[in-house]
Amino acid sequence: MADARGRSNRAAIYSRFAAYETTVDERDTAKVSASDESGEARVPVDRVVDQLARIAASRAFANAPMLRRFVEHVVTAAIAGRSHDLKEYSIGVEVFGRGPAFDPRVDTIVRVEARRLRSKLQEYYAGEGRADPVVFELPKGHYVPEFRLAGPPQQRPWRAQRVDDVVVEPG
Prior knowledge:
The protein is built from seven helices and five strands, in the order H-H-E-H-H-H-H-H-E-E-E-E. With 171 residues, the protein is mainly alpha-helical.
């Protein structure tokens, strides 16, 4: 059951890239998984998508549909090269259904839910996700997720700016 649900989640995640008018699919992962000139090890897109599917199907996120939608949105946008779109206003409108009159200075929904998402990710990685190969982090004050390969804590995970920048420091 978990494998079927994971495959279904994975397919749904890849289908979301169409909304960003991009062609990210499993064939693109080889390019992303190669090391660049600086020698940094990249996190392959397929591993990021697999991790997102695991998180979305997890018990920790089962009763938190808005947090699941939030993490899916920011990770999908980052992979699709749309990190520049991850602003408080756009997240409020696209994830939390606030209308065009949404004012993040008055309505703190995005900041509050970002704090809850950070906490829920910590809970997930402390429990059922402790052996997962990829770790997602949402740095305080930012909405662009960071990805790193699991293992010893990294001093500086890399923030995705576009698909080619989904990188981590070697462990």
